[in-house]
Amino acid sequence: MKATIADIRRGDRFTWGTKTYIAFDDARPDAHLTDLGDFHEIRMVQTTNLKVAEDGSFHQGTAFVDCQTVLSAKEIEISERGLRTVRLGEEPENVDTPRGWQYAENRLTGTMAARALAQRVADDIDETRDHEIRDALKAGMSVPEIMKVTGLSRARIYQIRDGRR
Known about the structure:
- The chain has 165 residues and is α+β, with helices and mostly antiparallel strands.
- It has a domain at 2-100.
- It contains 3 helices and 12 strands.
- Strand 6 (51-52) and strand 7 form a beta hairpin.
- The radius of gyration is 22 Å and the shape is elongated.
């Protein structure tokens, strides 16, 4: 079925681009990027990297859980729902109760990946803002006007103008 990243639930098998994944968590809004738009974070493993147990459940094993932060409206194809998944550090008998430091490590790794992405996005936005400030100055906009629009100090605007950071 056609869906978006925001529709993904734990145990969904879905295709994104040319690869097929299984979600190991529900997609959740990414609190780090709310100012930039509607983004969701999804933790998934490519199906070729998964172990399938005798009972048909998918075990993360040592497979890397890919944590992606994606625009919520990104279209995907969900081919199957409700697959049983077992993350590293979980007891197979009770997959709703994560256990062990491996689970914490995976969550922390995902959070740090999201933070790195947010930092790259923020850096790109700062670069765009700096370029637009230089263009505004060239077009004759005054420093006090730019200060009012951007909330930046006079000194910071001059640093941007002169290419100093």
